[in-house]
Amino acid sequence: MAKINEELLDHLFHLAKIEKEHNPQRRQKLLNDLEKILNYFNQLQEVETQEVEPMTGGTFLANVFRKDEEKIFSPQEKEEAKERSLAQFSSREERFLKTPPVFD
Amino acid sequence: MFFERNFTIEKYRQGILKREFSLTQAIEAFFDYLKEKDKDLGAFLEIFESAGKNQARVLDKKLSQLSEKERANLSPLFGVPLAIKDNILIAGFKTTAASKILANYIASYDATVIKKLKKEEVIFLGKTNLDEFAMGASTEYSAFKKTRNPYDLSKVPGGSSGGSAVAVAANMALGALGSDTGGSIRQPASFCGVVGLKPSYGAVSRYGLIALASSLDQIGPFAKTVADVALIFKAIAGFDDFDSTSVKVDWSRVDEYEPSAAKKLKIGVPKEYFVEGMEEEVKEAVMKVVEKFKADGFEIKEISLPHTQYAVSCYYIILPAEASANLARYDGLRYSPVAELKTENLSLWDYYLKQRSVGIGDEPRRRILLGNFVLSSGYYDAYYAKAQKVRRLILNDFENVFQKGKDGVDVILAPVSPTKAFEIGAKADDPLAMYLADIFTIPANLAGLCALSLPAENPQNFSKENMPVNFQLIGRRFEEKNILNLGRYFEEELRD
């Protein structure tokens, strides 16, 4: 079964958009923890699942589409909600939301 | 009076109707009490003192203008002080999920459950502590503070909804909301000796709940009695346009108590839930409950759920997979940045890295890495696809025993956790040990069933020497009525 080595760990950090762990002790602890967890998962291999349909979600219902139209909010509620959402953004200039440059 | 273990929502209502106290007096007393009490317990992340007191005055004024008849028709939750887990959005207030990455985030809208509770005119006391993003079983993984078990301050309250369980157990609130993805309501209810309900998947809207694992999450209530839990559940349940997994079910009579119907329910006790390594006291407490049902004439059968032993593996593959996707939205841009970070002159990529690295704690980080691993090409089939198949087998196990007719049972009676509350620090450094503690609660989430966690003996008997222990009643999907009815029967007719 799979083992998470140093290289794979760095790749996972990259996928997770989290800085690599540089502290050697913390890094080793993380590798050990993940290895222990994955070893435990190996018990699943003893379950016969050849004919089993995977359960892909929590519900057995078909997706229920609704029209893409706004509802419930009154004009005042809408204005407040908009203001509150925008206020959470890290940086703004007038009605624009500012992010760091996407391209260097 | 307010701060006794047997002071319930029902008694509070009688007090209001008989004019024994005004809401202003009651709510002031609650805030005074909880501010003092919570110094030791750390259940609350924020309290809404001025908003709560204002609301009480508004409701008192409304009361004074009502006729007797109108008063009697008020919502059963009118003016009831509730605590809310801090992963449920209340517009205009901070919602942090106990994570640094959301430390400054102010919710821009109300969760559907909050909207519904506002309609019932409850009073929110504040937001309660949890494990970061609801990942944990002890509330020790909160980025902000430790929450302690009210019966023994050196022990954990359970988790992840530890703050909500403690708020109710220590009489600081008459009820609370939590969320249960793998036991996060039922297990802290057990460690603190209060009642907690994990509703069936689809019974309660998840709109406005900070998502952990979307195919497993459900919001549910805590309270001191099954009757009170049923009242809160009835108020929050129902179909919601904003959650496409919510389901139309008639909940109008879910809180009605019918002892004669309870007596007809067939109970199954799964042999796989009495495992080695389980604490003897827990086993004894649950067996005593079984004996009480038996002595009262209930039909009790031993049943088998053969895939139980695979539930933890299955869950800890599916959960990180879903969580790693759900937590990808925290970019330090849209939900307010981590304040103390200097981020000028960074590229967008480095900005993300910095914000997420500082903002996301060890346990969510571990689960995000694990989630990325089980979903990545080369490992997907061996882990994620395999877990989805085993999840189906776990569901099939339940469907077999829940068959209608003479071979099936209506309700499963089982322990909630293999242990009572453990010492703070005992498992915090060993993630696998922490995961294994979820063994009895996870299966109901994987199968989407409802499950009620309630004290195995009179909570008045719980103490530091006799720490709380609950058992759970698991029911068919959307048959909350059965488990609430049976739970109430136990509480009112059998317990002591």
Give the low-pLDDT segments of chain B.
Answer: none
Q: What is the distance, rounded to the nearest whole angstrom, between the alpha carbons of the first and last residues of chain B? A: 22 Å
* Average of pLDDT of chain B: 96
Number of strands of chain A: 2
User: Which class of the domain at 9-265 and 414-494 in chain B in CATH terms?
Assistant: Alpha Beta
Q: How many alpha or pi helices of chain B?
A: 17
What separation lies between the terminal Cα atoms of chain A?
40 Å
Taken as a percent bin, the fraction of beta residues of chain A is under 5%
Structural key phrases:
heterodimer; A: 104 residues; mainly alpha; two-stranded antiparallel ribbon; 39% helix; B: 496 residues; alpha/beta; Amidase signature (AS) enzymes; eleven-stranded mixed beta sheet; 17 helices; globular
Characterize the structure shown.
The complex is a heterodimer of chains A (104) and B (496). Chain A is mostly helical and 104 residues long. Chain A has a domain at 6-46. Chain A is built from three helices and two strands, in the order H-H-H-E-E. The two termini of chain A are 40 Å apart. Chain B has a domain at 9-265 and 414-494: Alpha-Beta Complex (Amidase signature (AS) enzymes). Chain B has helices at residues 9-17, 23-41, 49-64, 68-72, 112-119, 162-169, 186-192, 226-236, 259-263, 280-295, 311-326, 348-359, 362-375, 381-401, 431-436, 442-447, 480-494; strands at residues 44-47, 81-85, 123-128, 175-180, 195-198, 218-223, 267-270, 300-303, 411-415, 450-455, 470-475. In chain B, strands 1-3-2-4-6-5-10-11-9-7-8 form an eleven-stranded mixed sheet, with helices on both faces. In chain B, helix 2 (23-41) runs antiparallel to helix 3 and helix 11 (311-326) crosses helix 14 (381-401). The model of chain B has no long low-confidence stretch (mean pLDDT 96). Chains A and B meet through helix 1, helix 2 and helix 3 of A and helix 11, helix 12, helix 13, helix 14 and helix 15 of B.
